[in-house]
Amino acid sequence: MKYKLVLFDVDGTLFDFETAEREAFEKTFNQFGIENDLQRLHKEYEIINSAIWRDFELKRITSEELRIERFRRFFAKENIQLDPLIFSPVYLKRLSEGTHLLPGAKEIISFLNGKCELALATNGLADVQNPRFAGSELAKYFQHIFISEEIGHPKPNPEFFQHIFQKLSYKESAIIIGDSLSSDIKGGNDFGIDTCWFNPNKYNNDTGIVPKFEINDLSELKEIII
Question: Are residue 131 and residue 144 in the same domain, yes or no?
């Protein structure tokens, strides 16, 4: 075995967050009586939400602030007369129900099961990620789940990884796999563990953040990890 511990990012790596998020967005707005123009509204929301999560990675905003602030900004921009304090918990409940997996996710996790320790390492909200994971087909395969909100520090900050390796003594034989260069790969690189960028859309990497490995299909992990 090349690696004793494999850290997997969740959204965009194993879980189909785009589908779960879009469904939660549409269902929540329908519940609040808004059914028109949802495709356009969702695109505008994604822009604001991405910026908010980037601020979270940089520790410019807390997870508690993030929950409300993204909808406050979005509602203000679109002149939507809804209360973010009421809307956000309903949306998060819907999002916590989204357990869609990406192609090949169950297959690769099943293959790795018993060959190494598996852990989730996510920059998510605990009341979303815990129920999503518990309700998914992958729950039985993982020994550990690390959520930034519970740790108190998001990826790529070193404190996130320090928390993990205070509990698990595998730093010299660990790898993190994720779709985010700025979060997963930068965090792993900075902390001194091996990194694998999951890049199914074959994006060009002009960030200066260089992973040790790059894959386009999760099945490629078999040759890297074993």
Answer: yes
